[in-house]
């Protein structure tokens, strides 16, 4: 019974967080083209599956604008979900990830893929809104 009460929001709040992250990028014109962001969000899960979470984040870390927005969204999500991992000395997000024990690294990879799945859905929906407004 108690387990049902602990669940907050759809998939522990991932959906709400993903919606706000995508909406923030759509409204912030400094980040770059929304179409590029859309394309990169859709590519991120395969980038993670092929190269691993650490390398995918290192790739995003070196890039600017759209990839930086994806990196920041993942960073904020993991800070919210696993605040204990970010306590103490100030480490870069990618540094925290590459120093995780193997079991946690796999857990974080699955979490990133689940969040990106929600972001992929919302980025398509918000891009569709743009297309309808332009017609």
UniProtKB/TrEMBL annotation:
It comes from the Bacteria. It is found in: Cytoplasm. One of its GO terms (cellular component) is cytoplasm. Its main location: cytoplasm. SUPFAM superfamilies: AF1862-like. Keywords: Antiviral defense, Cytoplasm. InterPro entries: AF1862-like_dom_sf, CRISPR-assoc_prot_Cmr5. Belongs to the CRISPR system Cmr5 family. This is CRISPR type III-B/RAMP module-associated protein Cmr5. It comes from Parageobacillus thermoglucosidasius.
């Amino acid at each position: 019974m108690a387990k049902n009460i602990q669940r907050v929001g759809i998939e522990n709040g991932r959906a709400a967080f993903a919606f706000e992250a995508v909406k923030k990028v759509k409204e912030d014109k400094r980040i770059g083209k929304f179409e590029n962001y859309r394309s990169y969000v859709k590519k991120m899960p395969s980038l993670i599956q092929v190269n691993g979470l650490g390398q995918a984040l290192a790739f995003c870390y070196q890039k600017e604008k759209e990839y930086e927005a994806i990196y920041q969204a993942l960073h904020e999500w993991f800070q919210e979900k696993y605040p204990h991992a970010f306590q103490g000395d100030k480490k870069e997000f990618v540094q925290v990830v590459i120093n995780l024990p193997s079991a946690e690294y796999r857990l974080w990879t699955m979490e990133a893929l689940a969040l990106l799945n929600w972001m992929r859905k919302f980025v398509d929906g918000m891009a569709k809104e743009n297309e309808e407004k332009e017609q």
